[in-house]
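Supplementary notes for students who missed Thursday's class. We covered one full example, reproduced here. Read the sequence, then the structure, then the short commentary at the end.
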Amino acid sequence: MGIEEQQFGEIVIAPRVLEKIIAIATAKVDGVHSFSNKSVSDTLSKLSLGRGVYLKESNEELTADIYLYLEYGVKVPKVAMAIQKAVKDAVRNMADVELAVVNIHVAGIVPDKTPKPELKDLFDEDFLND
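Structure (token representation):
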């Protein structure tokens, strides 16, 4: 006796949801300090909803680009690989979506005594008033 799959309808996950999953998974990796926008125009634009997280689809493959600052003293490649693994796992487990590539762009290193932003402050926006 096998398990039957039932089809109830279509499930659509907004890119914004994937951006948030990626951002939260990234922020939870040790050594990550904060996010950086790709350009000054992104800082001023509401199109940069993920604050440092950018998704693009090409040839039916989804790529994530993450722009961030790391804490001083960390091993950059080790933290970058931990982010890639955490992001791919989180998106697969929470949204059942496979990311083809996760690119990490380290915009800078933050000095020792710089306070790390709270997780809630990284995503302080009103989702209902778009």
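Commentary. Residues 76-95 form the longest helix (20 residues). Strands lie at 32-35, 53-58, 61-71, 101-110. If anything here is unclear, bring it to office hours.
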